[in-house]
Specification:
Elements (H helix, E strand, L loop, with lengths): L1 H17 L3 H12 L4 H6 L10 H35 L20 H14 L4 E2 L5 E3 H4 L29 E3 L4 H11 L3 E10 L11 E11 L4 H16 L5 E6 L4 E10 L15 E10 L1 H6 L8 E8 H9 L12 H4 L5
Parallel strand pairs: 1-4
Antiparallel strand pairs: 2-3, 4-5, 5-9, 6-7, 7-8, 8-9
Helix pairs in contact: 1-2, 1-4, 2-4, 5-8, 5-10
Length: 345
């Protein structure tokens, strides 16, 4: 049996060294060490040996097995390295050439507008701040001076979450103004902050309305802040979006969290005599704003006799529609590649 094992070692090592590819090597391994291999068959005969010879022959068989396994692994590594080297210098292949180009993504039009405006306001010292999309009723309404009987709190306008009985009510935020409340509570005054983000309403969907859209709110609170400061910030914003100064005007408007409140209109950047964008008026209603209501300052722990401020908001989705000539707001959240591929990086 010892002679057969030595012969097996000699012939096995020779077969391993002669293998030129992985398939051949796998065949040699199976023939030598597989379940029905030569070494396995020899090991089955150990039980027939005398008690004196059994450990000696068993030790020899184990040494041969380890030698064959080591040779197989070494040869496998050598064959794989040779095949890789052959591929790299193969005919028609230049490994120094760049690989196949990966498809390029694009920036969503709303995100592109948001980034531009963030850059504009960051250059003026504003902080870009974010907040949760599921808000408390206190932050979304109470702290913003919105009365308890205001229609905006009804289910036909706001999407309310299910909560345990007795727990504070929570909703999908209807505007990004709660971020201003959170920022004032965290940082206090003076403060300059913008809050871009996604908001939600119970809306009947059409070309200009969607249940999910994007807004950006701005807030400045300091001593001696007034309407001229607000108008400057709004005009700077529009200049950043459209790349030129636009003629603007202020109209009175009512919003519970500002007093006085305004609507800012801009002269239509697409026409001089009226078009489908401005609906023939040559003016486009763009953003509301106003001086922060004293009740809002009080709600966040500031003295309205010492501090004042202004707030404004705009629809990022609407600005993107104006910038890129998009005729339906529902494209924004559609996920349709035919739409998104038009905005390549």
């Amino acid at each position: 049996m010892r002679d057969r094992l030595e012969a097996l070692r000699r012939d096995g090592l020779a077969a391993v060294s002669e293998a030129q590819d992985l398939d051949t090597l796998y065949g040699v391994e199976s023939r030598l060490l597989g379940r029905t291999g030569a070494l396995t068959a020899e090991l089955k005969g150990l039980g027939k040996l005398s008690p004196e010879d059994r450990p000696v022959v068993g030790k020899l068989a184990n040494e041969i097995k380890q030698a064959l396994q080591g040779a197989l692994e070494e040869r496998r590594t050598a064959i794989e390295s040779a095949e890789l080297a052959a591929d790299l210098v193969g005919e028609g292949l230049d490994p120094s050439l760049p690989g196949a180009p990966a498809p390029k993504g694009g920036v969503h039009p709303v995100l592109a507008i948001a980034r531009e405006l963030e850059d504009v306001f960051s250059s003026m010292g504003y902080v870009v701040w974010d907040g949760p999309e599921i808000e408390t009723e206190a932050n979304n309404f109470d702290a913003l001076n919105i009365p308890a009987d205001h229609p905006a709190r009804e289910g036909h306008d706001t999407i309310w979450m299910k909560v345990e009985e007795g727990s504070p009510r929570r909703c999908l935020r209807t505007h990004t103004s709660p971020v201003q409340v959170r920022a004032l509570r965290e940082f206090g005054a003076p403060l300059r902050v913008i809050a871009p983000g996604r908001v939600f309403r119970q809306e009947a969907q059409d070309a200009t309305h969607d249940h999910t859209f994007h807004q950006m709110e701005g807030l400045v609170v300091d001593k001696g802040v007034g309407v001229p400061h607000m108008l400057h910030a709004m005009n700077t914003l529009l200049e950043g979006v459209f790349g030129r100064k636009l003629e603007t005007r202020l109209r009175p408007g009512f919003f519970p969290f500002v007093e006085p409140g305004f609507e800012l209109d801009a002269r239509c950047p697409f026409c001089k005599e009226g078009c489908k964008v401005c609906k023939g008026s040559t003016w486009i209603e763009l953003m509301p704003g106003g001086l922060v209501h004293p009740n809002v300052l009080t709600a966040v722990g500031l003295d309205p006799e010492e501090y004042s401020g202004f707030a404004f908001g705009l629809g990022l989705s609407r600005i993107a529609m104006l910038r890129y000539g998009i005729n339906d707001i529902r494209w924004m959240m559609s996920g349709d590649l035919r739409f998104l591929e038009q905005f390549q990086a």
